[in-house]
Specification:
Blueprint: E1 5-9, H1 20-36, E2 40-44, H2 46-52, E3 58-61, H3 66-77, E4 81-83, H4 86-91, H5 94-103, E5 111-115, H6 121-127, E6 132-136, E7 147-150, H7 153-165, E8 170-175, E9 180-187, E10 193-196, H8 198-201, H9 222-236, E11 240-247, E12 253-260, H10 268-287
Parallel strand pairs: 1-2, 1-3, 3-4
Antiparallel strand pairs: 5-8, 6-7, 6-8, 9-10, 9-11, 11-12
Helix pairs in contact: 1-10, 6-7
């Protein structure tokens, strides 16, 4: 294969809440793997990317700023290869993700999408929602308050009012699911798939894992989980992915969150070669 020049765009710190070091570590590990395979990888900050742009026509990125995402999309439209796709990154914003997953029959919690300035108490009561999660619909979570657990419709209304006052116009309300919380990581086109119980391992971003608490070791089909997550990655157009799911006492699996290029913190060394392989395979397909 001819010399491959790659622009690597790091994630801005504001979009790595409590995981700045972990996000940088996996990105640098993948860059090292690509260099070992003969690629020339130049690392840029998200700010550099937005201010000066890049010359390379292969872009590997962890971008999250909306300005960056739109710039990635423009470059894709002009023929650049972008991993993860700017369109895929935008698909992981909450409301868009919810609509895509439900529309693609991916197992997902019952959800209501609302304006934050509307009254929702009656709708929640009619739908039978008591305990539920309210999540900003327009973007990725940047603060702990962007994902809120509530115990009844009245509390939900209060949280929506807070979102409205913060300038967040749309929200997704997910029914709370009882069961074991599982975090997963995967890479398209490779055998890599890793899962674990985050609460048991003390792995947390905002502390929300404590709501479901310690795992009960509920039985579930691990191959089915991998297949569900892989299908979600395909419909969302995200090759390097991770997220969270709930396993019910009956063994049902539902995705509750899906992320473009997470930290891979507990499996970084195992994941990095597979991510590099995915990137190189995609480059090869583009050049054929």
């Amino acid at each position: 294969m001819a010399e491959i020049k790659i622009a690597g765009i790091m994630r801005a710190g504001a979009y790595s809440p409590n995981h700045i070091g972990n996000d940088a570590a996996i990105f640098n590990a993948v860059a090292d793997q690509l260099r070992k395979r003969g690629c020339i990888v130049t690392i840029y900050s998200e700010e550099q990317f937005n201010n000066d742009g890049v010359k390379e026509d292969i872009i590997v990125n962890m971008c999250r700023e909306m300005k960056s995402i739109h710039k990635l999309q423009k470059l894709e439209d002009e023929g650049a290869l972008v991993i993860n796709s700017g369109y895929g990154i935008e698909n992981c914003t909450r409301e868009r993700m919810t609509r895509i997953l439900i529309g693609s029959n991916i197992p997902y919690p019952e959800s209501i999408m609302v304006n934050t300035d509307e009254s929702v108490k009656d709708a929640l009561k009619e739908a039978g929602f008591t305990k539920c999660w309210i999540k900003r619909g327009d973007f990725h979570a940047m603060h702990k308050e962007d994902v809120s657990y509530v115990r009844h419709p009245e509390e939900a209304q209060e949280v929506l009012q807070e979102y409205f006052l913060r300038g967040i116009k749309r929200a997704v309300i997910n029914r709370h699911l009882v069961g074991d919380l599982i975090k997963f990581y995967g890479v398209q086109g490779t055998p890599f798939f890793f899962w674990f119980y985050p609460f048991d391992e003390g792995h947390s971003k905002y502390g929300h894992e404590a709501i479901n608490g310690k795992s009960q070791g509920l039985k579930f089909d691990k191959d089915l989980m991998r297949d569900i997550c892989h299908k979600a990655s395909e419909v969302l157009d995200v090759k390097i992915y991770g997220g969270d799911c709930i396993v019910s006492p009956e063994g049902d699996i539902r995705i509750i969150d899906f992320n473009d290029w997470p930290s891979f913190a507990p499996c970084r060394q195992e994941a990095a070669p597979h991510i590099a392989k995915c990137i190189l395979s995609t480059i090869k397909e583009m050049k054929q």
